[in-house]
Amino acid sequence: LDAYGNLQYKCDDGRKVRSKSEKIISDFLFKYGIRTIYEKTVYYYPNESETITLHPDFYLPDFDCYIEHNGVDTKSYKANKAKTEEMYKSLGYKVIVTTENDLVDIEAKLKPILRIN
Questions:
Q1: What is the distance of C-alpha 71 from the center of its chain?
Q2: Residues 79-102: tens digit of each pLDDT
Q3: How far is the CA of 9 from the CAs of 6, 26, 38, 92, 112, in angstroms?
């Protein structure tokens, strides 16, 4: 058990992730041979005395971008995710955001962005 809970969903590449949604994304990335780092820590320093630790779902080193899945559809969750996305942008990081609707056809969402034929 880690700080966030069990890693209970086993992906095609053998790694374990926290949610069914992350498994779908991970399996897509594995299928197309895209290297990933799961929950690579990102540090954001809004001022000299504060550090915010972010844990994006996936980092794609060959694309130098992150994937964040927004799996909850509440106002507060969306506001928090929007704030997080702004942190990534202020750091100059590229972020691909997916939602539950995207999981219906994850290939249609990610293939054009990642330029996969």
A1: 11
A2: 888 888 889 999 999 999 999 999
A3: 9, 10, 13, 31, 26
Q: Which residues of the chain have pLDDT under 50?
A: 1
CB–CB of 14/23 below 8 Å?
no
Amino acid identity of residue 43, one-letter, is Y
2 token code pair: 């880690």
Residue 62 Cα to chain centre, angstroms: 15
Exposure letters 45-73 (e unless 16+ CB within 10 A, then b): eeeeeeeeebebbbbbeebebbbbbbbee
Neighbour count for residue 115 (Cβ, 10 Å)? 7
CA 8/CA 57 separation, integer angstroms: 15
DSSP class of residue 104? G
What pTM does this model have? 0.86
Q: Kindly provide the b/e burial profile for residues 13-31, where b requires at least 16 CB atoms within 10 angstroms of the residue's own CB.
A: eeeebbeebbbbbbebbbe
Please tell me the total number of residues recorded for the chain in this structure.
117
